[in-house]
Amino acid sequence: MAVTFIGVRHHSPACARLVRDTIARLRPAYVLVEGPADVNGRLDELLLGHAPPIAIYSFYRDGERVHSSWSPFCDYSPEWTALNAGRAAGAELRFIDLPAWHPAFAERGNRYADAERRYADATERLCREFAVDNTDVLWDHLFEIDADHLPARLDAYFDLVRGEAEPGPDDSAREAYMAAWVRAAHADADDRPVVVVTGGFHKPALEALARTGGTGWPEVPAPGADAMGGSFLVPYSFRRLDAFTGYQSGMPSPEYYQRLWEDGPDGAAAALTERVVTRLRERRQVVSTADLIAARTLTEGLTRLRGHRSPARTDLLDGLVSALVGEDLDQRLPWTARGPLAPGAHPAVAEMVAALSGDRVGRLHPGTPAPPLVHDAAAELERLGLAAGGRIAVKLTTARGLERSRALHRLRVLGIPGVARESGPATGADPVLEEVWHLDPSDPGGARLAALIEAGAYGPTLGDAAAAALDERTAAAGDDMERLAESLFDAALCGCAGQSGRIAASLAAGVAGASDLGALGRALDVVLGLWRHDHVLGTARSPLFGTVIEECTQRILWLAEGIRGGPAPADRARLRALAAARDALLHAAGTLRVDRDAALGVARRVAAAPDVPPDLRGAGFGLARALGDTADPARAVRGAAGPRVFGDWLAGLFALARQEVLDPGGTVLAVLDEMVGALTDEDFLIALPALRQAFEYFPPRERETIAERLLARRGLRGSARSLLRAPRDPLVIAEARALEERVDRALDAAGLTGGRP
Asked: Per UniProt, what is one Pfam family of this protein (predicted)?
């Protein structure tokens, strides 16, 4: 008997019916399916009786490459139908494609990503000839609504698109491998039929390749000895399948195609019209009986006009939008193109898309094997009293509290949904010693289970998995100091000491080439805090952290001294970097090799340079004062008196040495009061935005202290706190006063003010 090749579009109900009916009719010896061959030993697990959508999640990791991918199935996936129909017919089942970790899939996160980008020219021409918007509409028009002569039409379609496309080396490797399985099954079938179900793009090549070559069963590639890889079943969802939410492949609107599979096109149109109306009414959108009649009438008219026997998906959607949306739309209708729903879509249109997308979530059979991480996470949550979920307060000063914190942080680092920290230390220097978490125990839609299964690729326990995830983040960060610093802090929170050392080493290696002051400052702030204070997290006085502190401080000062430029808004990132260098110079000088005298020289030169931006000059002066310089601050403030630079210079000063204003015996506050009071309304309006930004460096209590002293300078009594709550925006008041002044000048110039008192 000959081999029967069925080329399909992934997630097509029409193709799924063809596969089901062909296998039932032929009752083949083998059913061969495009899918990961390394899962063949676990096909019984795949057919336990799950409720789709589900997916095979595959992962791979070695010293150079990390890869993960999904092979999703829903009820109407031809591959899923082939497996179930083949099992019912008594056939031997085999997946025949390369494993998902193979380099042939290096650029693909989804095995069933359609090949349409490779034959775009052919499908674009067909879309023009049939006057449709895109390949989804074309496919419905040609195959889903009218199934007459489906095998011949599919063959013609895939022969056309394959004939005009050039397969890449990845396709060629996969097709050669799949053809070897076909030849072996044919040789072993004893003249019984063999059915091969693959993407239609591959069918013409497989028919040719299967005619010649060896007939032995091909070997299944295995990861190398230094690599880690495997596959597990995970629950999937229509949201993850849907092209409107970014799915790589297949069709949009999975709920529509589910109804099409179950009830046919007329039943799908009726059910989903009701679903759209229900959603709109739940959101208080008025949908009358007349609107429903109009929608049905318009849908039927579009169906006949487009030559369809029954409503297609876009007939239904176009009829609904014509009847239910009365105003002009600012955007093209989303089903006229492929890809995610654009922001700003009309609410009714968004509800229509959501209704046809659906919210189904798959369920795995209770007997499905899970990776060890799933069981370890459940055991840890139970052991630590976290399984019940809810709002959880964790004290970091107790051994049990620290254990609970680390377990929760490991779940957070692994991206497990339903685990959120509401408060806690933001850096190693943060004095907060309690965390508050919210843990959702309900796991709506099985999202947590799916995420834990997928995270199982990182390791068998929460600690191992979090450590591997942090290693991956570190590698991806490259020389990005800020991302490395974030990973380092997370490693400390997770209790991953080995990762902390490796990340700190990466930071130390990247400092010499770093040029982003803000990123260096963030890194120094994190490392210094962990080095100084973190007895709780176990990183205090780490020698490696000390090396990072020394090198970051030197690099920040070197970069700061090289900056030149005219007046510009204060750069908060570089001011934070200089503040971090100040803290290192103040708190680590006795232990580490940080030269305060050399830093003081840099600070003085930066403060005195006329071609340095004003915020940096102010920061240089503030740094010098913090390091013990005795220069007169009042004189320095007066030197920065121009309204276009005053506020930015003060921002630099306050970022590094705001105590200069708070010092009861100092003169800075008096000078500031004098200078601000002397500004004209116009100059004040110019200076005000930067002044407001500068004073944001003072927390509310310190602002209140400044207000109290200003009242005392004027001999006034009153509430200092009330001065901080202006009845109107100060900028609006200043603009109004400046406008009044301009009007007065204009009246004076026109000689119209002579009669005023």
From this structure: DUF5682
Whether omega before 366 lies within 30 degrees of 0, making that bond cis, reads no
Closest to 620 (Cα-Cα) out of 687, 588, 553, 575: 575
User: How many whole angstroms separate alpha carbon 136 and alpha carbon 143?
Assistant: 11
419-423 and 434-439 strand pairing: antiparallel
- β-pairing, 66-73 vs 54-61, is antiparallel
To 10 degrees, what angle do helices 543-561 and 614-626 make?
Answer: 130
Distance (Å, rounded) from C-alpha 13 to C-alpha 693?
A: 60
Q: What does the longest C-alpha to C-alpha distance in the chain come to?
A: 116
Nearest Cα neighbor of 356 from 376, 337, 372, 334 is 334
Q: Name residues whose C-beta falls within 8 Å of residue 226's C-beta, 6 or more positions apart in sequence.
A: 62, 63
The residue assigned the tokens 């940096």 is: 616
Q: How many CB atoms lie under 10 A from the CB of residue 343? A: 6
Other CB atoms within 10 Å distance of the CB of residue 406 = 23
Dist CA 648 CA 106 (whole Å): 50
Torsions phi, psi for 319 (to 5 deg):
-65, -40
What is the rounded distance in angstroms from the CA atom of residue 675 to the CA atom of residue 753? 30
- Cα separation, 317 vs 24, in Å, equals 35
**Residue whose C-alpha is closest to residue 320's, from 266, 360, 270, 362:** 270
Q: Please spell the DSSP secondary structure of 44-60, one letter per residue.
A: HHHTS--BSSEEEEEEE
CA-nearest of 169, 165, 186, 225 to 5 is: 186
Q: Which helix (H) or strand (E) holds 147?
A: none
Mean pLDDT of the region 249-254: 76
Q: How far apart are CA 504 and CA 501, in angstroms?
A: 5
What is the per-residue pLDDT for 757? Answer: 47
Task: Name the nearest CA neighbour of 392 among 439, 432, 424.
Answer: 439
CA distances from 95 to 43, 92, 190, 193, 197 (A): 9, 10, 20, 17, 10
- What number of CA atoms fall less than 13 Å from residue 585's CA on the CB side? 26
Contacts of 63 (CB under 8 A, 6+ apart): 226
Bridge partners (DSSP) of residue 232 are: 57
The neighbour count for residue 598, using CB atoms within 10 Å, is: 12
Average pLDDT of the residues in 9-30: 95
Return the amino acid letter for 380: E
Rounded Cα–Cα distance for residues 580 and 50 (Å): 55
Task: Look up residue 191 and give its two tokens.
Answer: 């003249």
Q: Is 61 helix (H, G, I), strand (E, B) or coil?
A: strand
pLDDT in tens, 620-653: 999 999 999 988 888 888 888 888 898 999 999 9
Pairing of strands 30-36, 194-199: parallel
Residues forming beta bridges with residue 195, ordered by sequence position: 4, 31
* Residue whose C-alpha is closest to residue 244's, from 231, 235, 257: 257
Q: What are phi and psi of 688, to 5 degrees?
A: -60, -50
Residue 187 CA, distance from chain mean position: 49
Beta-sheet strands, E only, within 373-495: 390-395, 419-423, 434-439
Contacts of 653 (CB under 8 A, 6+ apart): 618, 619, 621, 622, 637, 660, 694
DSSP state of 362: -
Q: Are 287 and 103 in contact (CB under 8 A)?
A: no
Question: Domain coordinates of the chain in residue numbers?
Answer: 3-112+169-236, 254-357, 372-463, 520-718, 725-750
pLDDT tens readout for residues 124-183: 888 888 989 888 899 999 999 987 889 999 999 988 888 766 677 888 899 999 999 999
Question: What is the rounded CA–CA span in Å between residue 409 and residue 418?
Answer: 12
3-state secondary structure of 483: helix
Number of helical (H) and strand (E) elements in the chain, helices listed first: 32, 10
Phi, psi of 264 (to 5 degrees): 80, 170
